[in-house]
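Step 1: inspect the first sequence and its tokens.
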Amino acid sequence: MSNILDLVGNTPLLKLQNIPPKDIDIYVKAEYYNPSGSVKDRAAKAMILRGIKNKEFTKNKTLIDATSGNTGIAYAMICAHLGLKAAICIPKNANLERKRLLNAYGAQIIETNPLLSSDGAVETAQKIAFDEPSKYFYPNQYSNEENPKAHYLSTAVEIWKQTDKKITHFISGAGTCGTFTGTSKRLKEFNKNIKTILMQPDSPFHGLEGMKHLASSAIKGFYDESFIDENIEVSTEEAHAITLELAQKEGLFAGISSGANVCAALKFAQKAPPNSVIVTILCDNGFRYLTDSLWDKK
């Protein structure tokens, strides 16, 4: 008999059929098959379970952390399942779908200065947690080693097996950098010749929720240059276009950050060696972006 936490991970790896060049294989890890609907379930589960194991997170405490959306939703889902409380600091301009999902799972929402983006949410969460440590459990997804470790132990291993050890390139965006760093580290241990490529928004002011423009960000999380073989920048407009193509040409209804990852993979594919096997991440699904105007485009 399983519980909902047993459903985290082991997501499918799908080959794109219609968008990429015919001589290049691009695979996408469909992370929206996780129970709360995003890649963040992996890290959230690991951080919460470690907090419980260490007796840092108990029934008389409330989890508090900062998020751009997906990690907060994962926290809220897991806390609801375990009968625990969650308070989520999120920029006020985060989209409506994210806030409704947090409400649905019973989490308290603490809106923060939209001009400070996720960095402002982190500052708010830190202050609340440090002011009342007896009341709050603060996992801090930006510095909790369980975040990249979750991807080191699961995401990378799944990709390695699902590609029959043939992966040549891994591409992922930067939020906390947990997915990129944890997965890249393990893949390079499997095969030192695998190239790991970081996708970033092309400017500090962008529409790729959950992704960081690291040069302008005060909080860089698990950013580690030693695992970056190349950087590829993607504009919001490019990400929107590929997100639509994923839906209309592949039947994959993915979110905007997923479109950005695939856009980076397509850019790299233009110069990739023959027989390359490129893997990237579909972070979440399009249902979290339904109020975005991109879906009105043809």
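Step 2: inspect the second sequence and its tokens, then contrast the two.
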Amino acid sequence: MKPMHVIACLVFAAASLGAQTVVIVSAKNPISKLTKEQAAQIFLGQARTFITGGAAEPLDLPESSDLRKDFYLKALNKPPAQMKAYWSKLEFSGTGRAPKALPTAADIVKLVGENPRYVGYVDAASVNTSVKVVLTL
């Protein structure tokens, strides 16, 4: 391998390692921490409230998002195809609906920051003062 190819591979690998998926809630939300299991329950529609008692509504990124794939593999140990099948089954039976998908991480940060009922996931670099990190994956 040529030296430039090695450097390019190392830069790409370092950038990939630097990306960190975090679960966020509004800075106004009283919750300060979620366990991986609690986040999984919310994103699977099995829990509709935070442990503090407030409503919990998950927000998703588009199906094509690499961050979405990363989140579901790390938080729920489920690949995208399995999640799609899971929600299709629940929606067909009328017992649940998939989280609302927003186009970008910036959209998730904005909506989560404005309303304490929302919970989302983004890259750690997207976090601002309107939200707080409650779980790092």
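Step 3: confirm your contrast with the notes below.
Strands lie at 21-26, 57-60, 100-101, 118-123, 131-136. The longest strand covers residues 21-26.
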